[in-house]
Amino acid sequence: MSRTQRTNEGRGRLGSVLSGVAVALGCVLFLGGFVWGAFLYQPYTVPTGSMTPTIGSGDRVLAQRIDGDEVRRGDVVVFEQSTWGDLPMVKRVVGVGGDRIACCKDGKLTVNGKEVAEPYLPEGKGAAATGIPTTTVPKGRLFLLGDERSGSLDSSVHLGDGEHGSVPRDAVQARVDAVAWPMGKFGMLERPDGFAEMPGGISEPGPLRMMVIAIVVGMVLVLGGAAYGPVAKRMGRRRAGGRTQEIAGVG
After folding, report:
1. CA 54 to CA 118: how far, in whole Å?
2. Which of 4, 19, 48, 128 could bond 103 through an S-S bridge, CB–CB 3.0 to 4.6 Å?
3. Three-state DSSP state, 110
4. Contact status, residue 59 vs residue 181, Cβ threshold 8 Å
5. Is 91 one of the annotated active-site residues of the chain?
6. What percent of the chain has pLDDT over 70?
7. Which of 19, 50, 155, 203 is catalytic?
8. Cα–Cα distance between 14 and 227 in angstroms, integer?
9. Per-residue confidence in pLDDT tens, the chain, 251 aa
10. What is the pLDDT of residues 56-104, one digit of tens each?
11. pLDDT exceeding 90 applies to what percent of the chain?
């Protein structure tokens, strides 16, 4: 056996080992990303357009399962409130316990007397369809509004229901991190800076981006590792054919 043949065989064995490692690692990342996501996230279909343009009617969202105590101003949350309806709803938190909510001063929502920038509202629309008298959010509760204020059955509509239209923190089931469907709208939800300077600040994004990266990298490793064998064989046949032609030419 020539030295060249031994070298090629050694490279072939190393390549096979590396391809096996790539496939194994890829499977761990790919399946691990899905399992991690299934444990932390819940998909929801939004039934109405009350969160337009952030989330449209029929959009599929991914929401991280969280405890109500983790909710911050500006979060878009999934919650259930029996006095509002029988189905899960999606709204944006604009006030927490102790906050004074009012609208509208210069067309803007105010929280504790400070105007809040709301870039997520539909272009040309105001901060509320009707005025919101100064309302103090009870402790342990949340004040929620839809981004499409003119068509949202939210805290501003339920002000007279008791507890100033607020809902308890433990009514929250999850926090929306991203729009998953339709594909043209796929993307992470941005945390609004308008609430960043208030006590408690804004929440940090969940690990969804890391999960997607793990799944994509895992898929690439699995496909790449699985493709190594056929590609290596084809290249080996080409090299063998080239050597055969070279020997024949010499003869």
Report:
1. 12
2. 128
3. strand
4. yes
5. yes
6. 84
7. 50
8. 15
9. 544 444 445 455 776 787 888 888 889 988 888 888 888 999 999 999 999 999 999 999 999 999 999 999 999 999 999 889 888 999 999 999 999 999 987 788 999 999 999 999 988 777 776 789 999 999 999 999 999 988 889 999 999 888 899 999 999 999 999 999 988 888 899 999 999 999 999 999 899 888 989 989 998 988 887 776 665 566 555 555 555 544 445 55
10. 999 999 999 999 999 999 999 999 998 898 889 999 999 999 999 999 8
11. 53
Residue type for position 116: V
- Strand, coil or helix: 31: helix
Tokens found for residue 31: 């399946």
User: Do 35 and 215 contact (CB within 8 A), yes or no?
Assistant: no
Residue with structure tokens 């043209």? 184
Q: Which of 2, 16, 91, 125 is catalytic?
A: 91
Contact 47, 59 (CB under 8 A): no
Q: Is 50 a catalytic residue?
A: yes
83 phi and psi angles, rounded to 5 deg = -75, -10
Q: How far is the C-alpha of 161 from the C-alpha of 140, rounded, in Å? A: 17
Provide the 8-state DSSP code for 197.
Answer: T
Structure tokens at 148: 């499409």
List Cβ neighbours of 250 (8 Å cut-off, separation of 6 or more). none
Pairing of strands 172-181, 187-188: antiparallel
Two tokens, residue 40: 């932390």
Amino acid at site 115: E
